[in-house]
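User: Can you predict the 3D structure for this chain?
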Amino acid sequence: MSKQVCRRCLVDGRVQGVYFRASTRQKALELGLGGHANNLPDGRVEVLVCGEITAVHALCAWLRHGPRAARVDQLDCQDIAGALATQDFSTG
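Assistant: Here is the predicted structure, written as structure tokens:
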């Protein structure tokens, strides 16, 4: 069995209003990951992602640039304790 991890990422830049959350959801589901992508009041997007370690790393690498219309200025990802019981990925 492969190692499961959860990671919380804060994405800063032009990441709201450019389909960042929807694109993140699509990529996460392609990778078989669960979690969420939510807009924060300060203009950042919070991404919580849980699943197989190599898939989580792949999504975090994708977050460095996001969809074509986005501009990622800063990405801060940290592992967190806990496991997500669902393979669903939501946006809010």
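The chain has a mean pLDDT of 92. The chain has two helices and five strands.
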